[in-house]
């Protein structure tokens, strides 16, 4: 058993009391999201939180990490000095496997190329009580759904499609590595109380329509930004009418509308899925508290009273959708798609069709798609496009192989790829004659931004259900509508595809020989974490130094950044991602995308020691070598974008002492605080203009650093003049402790040592 039944039973034991207390406090019936959120507060509250405004501390039940983001998260966790993770956690090796030839060979190549990363992740998981899913075991969200997700639970995961677990009624939220470190180290996890969007589903799907079409339609309605800061809760009799894996598909792609997460209420379909994935015990425990795992009845009758926005979709009328190209919210019902292809001059020829991924590789998806492949064989049709199948997990792969479905795919020329992200995240060595040629592909994945799948700007990527992807692959043409059109078979006859047919769950149950799971050691104290000292991809972290107890004087101005400075400007992605487990190497990208306000150039700043202009990281290294600290000055909303913790760690590592800006993006500001950095804002924004290129800077007032009390910045200009101005900060008592200790993890380490 890989899941933690005692933890789940503990959550359920407390649930009725917590729900009742919340209902009383709010004085009204509750939605499901409210029940789960209030049941997971890190400390009880006597006052309600305001949706979209209040910042709330939560205590999630689980953490899941994928191999790319886990590296820095776990390196940081090591410095917290704990023997074990505070909550059940898992690592999943899925992002680093490139799809090139087929499953077996690609997996062997990945095992070789990423040997040191896998050895590190496996050993550190073993040591600290973390479940480790080896390369080939499957994609994080599918493995979580099959093993760990449970109704009414709360988890965070270091991947944006973590909300997939909402298909089993879990509040599951995608976060950055820094948040995972907090929760694994036993700190509360902060989130702005989400708004609530209710989606009422009536009727029942049939024929060619599948769960994917619900979210493709919702994406068209809400657009890629419409769900921002909100939990999308699906309800109504339509919601109970389809499979748990279909629900997971919808929750997975809630990420494409920016939703915090998406959620379905506990029902018989979830119980069936839990039972068939060896979790009858979880289903029984959930059954015992089932009224608390659904919204209160009043919510169904008057949803507008309880949700900030309500959308209604009648599943009886829902058509299959194809969304794209280049954005997942450009939604076309299949009846309008052919015309859109023609009018927009998108390449009609479909070159590659890809099914599977974490979004759509359930037994239901695969069996329905296989029924179409079988029809192609029976009706004398060829598969006109290249066709690939990415199983979401070894459990699914083994089962569909046993049931002959993989054989059906290979009979029509389908290529089975590794149980991994592969083409979904650009890990795809695509064979194409001319990379500049406009071309079309279609996937059953979730994202279709330019270059996402194959790195080519010329590729027009569309997303649809696996059934529609398979039908279009048979036709080899984007303008084919399988609901109405016929195809010419090898005998020259006109044939029509019948509606896909499949099984929600395997009739013979799931089976697997080796799921790819490695349980951690009972006692990890003797386990050695494997990191080579000569590695350029991994480096153990040394704790950051504590504050020296004095004001900071004689700091150099590293850069006065002008305009937008996102986490991507501060710590670029692309080729640098290779070094995400090596802080010193990745620090060579620090602020190279920021625009210097004094010369409008990127990565060109004045080195005050030599008077020469040079790259930002090299200049900072020169200051550090000379024993000098520095200040980074920035504009509005500094650090917006992803929650990438490297953007806060790199300046800290290279010796920057303070980031002084007009305003911060909140997550980045918090990340800076966690790393023990000073994050300050101009009390008067015009003071930004006072900063001159050759300034030396003092930060005064630190010996009496207190919440709500301004600090003072003193500029020493080159002409000998000085000027002072006040600066604000938002540090609370605890965050001031973090600053003094040199970082939040240093505080935890000190506590753990006691
Ligand atoms: Fe992987 Fe794509 Fe899912 S990158 S986690 S298969 S969204």
Give a written overview of the molecule.
Helices cover 31% and strands 18% of the residues. A 7-stranded mixed beta barrel has the order 22-26-27-28-31-30-29. A 6-stranded mixed β-sheet has the order 6-5-2-3-4-21, sandwiched between helices. Helix 10 (268-276) runs antiparallel to helix 11, helix 14 (363-378) packs parallel to helix 17 and helix 21 (646-654) packs across helix 22 (666-674). The protein starts with a helix and ends with a helix. The chain is of the alpha/beta class. Bound molecules: FE3-S4 cluster. Pathway: Carbohydrate metabolism; tricarboxylic acid cycle; isocitrate from oxaloacetate: step 2/2. Its EC number is 4.2.1.3.
Classify the beta-strand content into a percent band.
15-25%
Q: What does the radius of gyration come to? A: 27 Å
CATH architecture of the domain at 552-753: Alpha-Beta Barrel
Task: Quickly give the structural class.
Answer: alpha/beta
CATH class placement of the domain at 552-753: Alpha Beta
Q: CATH homologous superfamily of the domain at 552-753 - what is it?
A: Aconitase, domain 4
What are the bound molecules? FE3-S4 cluster
Pfam family, one: Aconitase_C
GO molecular function: 4 iron, 4 sulfur cluster binding; aconitate hydratase activity; metal ion binding
GO biological process, one term: tricarboxylic acid cycle
Family: Belongs to the aconitase/IPM isomerase family.
